[in-house]
Automatic annotation (TrEMBL):
PROSITE patterns: VOC. This is Catechol-2,3-dioxygenase. The keyword Metal-binding does not apply. It holds the Pfam family Glyoxalase. One of its GO terms (molecular function) is dioxygenase activity. InterPro entries: Glyas_Bleomycin-R_OHBP_Dase, Glyas_Fos-R_dOase_dom, GlyoxalaseI/FosfomycinResist, VOC_core.
Length: 316
């Protein structure tokens, strides 16, 4: 496997936290349709876990008047790395939301939050309690874990450079179109092809959040269940070339794009050379050739609403 860890000790994607006006509807969607398990509530917060993941939760919902991304959370390998990283960020002029301290959310731990270059709140943490989890059974069509998060940016090269230079993420691959140039950068902090990707969009916002299924059969069964529940499908089923993973994209009740996926590629050598894929070429967006052709209509669904949380830290 990849022998070069993240230079700052960032290990993996922990959870994505969303604020939503339709809190009750979203809770029902993620529990009953999407297949997550609500493991706790705290006032107007809902913590949702994946049965196959040791993370305390992978999605946090917060009732709010306005829809927004509250934060993206990444794990770190030690509290010492958390402290050192806070000093590194401060020395580079990155705006910290708070100093490293004990976390007050489910699972506890030690960490801090800061704004990335687009104004998203990012949390890093270590020593978070793990959750009792279990292997997902054959034909059990529920998420195993959180796979990756993709964010829209008006300047994907600047955002890529921030995550590479400041957070130590590495570029894996890039998508390109002849008339728009480069439109998405895939970035990794561990062996997975990407834990984060940056997509070209008209404003900072959530592009999509992806959930790993047990295998192809469970991925397709889950896709069918979500379709039968009346959820709007944006695109899929299909299989990308960059990352080699399957995809079906849906809109949740708040208009955030969510993806079922499986079989995401892992990087097995340090000598990885990023590829720039022309998405207009057959098979690049969908190796199987069964998904509808990618179009501006598909892209527009994932532009999402302008994020109201830019450079505004969530209250919890």
């Amino acid at each position: 496997m990849n022998t070069t860890p993240n230079e700052h000790g960032i290990t993996h994607l922990r959870h994505v936290d969303l604020a939503v006006p339709d809190f009750a509807t979203q809770r029902t969607f993620y529990k009953d349709t999407w297949g997550l398990t609500e493991v706790g509530t705290d006032g107007e917060l809902s913590y949702l876990a994946a049965e196959g993941s040791p993370e305390q939760y992978i999605v946090r919902l917060r009732r709010a008047a306005e829809k927004r991304l509250d934060l993206i959370a990444f794990g770190m390998d030690s509290t010492a790395s958390v402290d050192a990283f806070a000093q590194t960020l401060a020395g580079r002029g990155v705006q910290l939301v708070g100093e490293p301290a004990a976390l007050q959310t489910a699972g506890g731990g030690y960490g801090f939050r800061f704004f990335d270059i687009d104004g998203r709140t990012i949390e890093v943490s270590a020593d978070v309690e793990t959750r009792r989890h279990r292997p997902i059974e054959e034909r059990e069509a529920i998420p195993v874990r959180l796979s990756h998060a993709v964010m829209n940016s008006t300047d994907i090269h600047r955002t890529r450079d921030f995550y590479a230079a400041v957070l130590g993420f590495r570029l894996t691959d890039t998508l390109y179109t002849p008339h728009m140039g480069q439109v998405m950068h895939f970035m990794r902090c561990n062996d997975w092809h990407h834990s984060l990707a940056i997509a070209h969009g008209p404003h900072p916002s959530v592009h999509h959040v992806s959930f790993e299924m047990r295998g192809i059969d469970e991925y397709l069964r889950g896709t069918g269940r979500v379709l039968q529940a009346g959820t709007k499908k944006i695109w899929g089923p299909g299989r990308h070339t960059a990352g080699d993973n399957t995809f079906t994209y849906f809109l949740d009740p708040s208009g955030n794009t969510m993806e079922y996926t499986t079989a995401l590629e892992t990087i097995t050598t340090d000598e990885w050379h990023p590829t720039v894929y022309d998405v207009t070429q057959p098979g690049v967006q969908d190796q199987w050739g069964i998904a509808d052709p990618f179009s501006e209509i598909v892209a527009k669904d994932s532009f999402n609403d302008p994020d109201r949380g830019v450079f505004v830290a969530p209250p919890v």
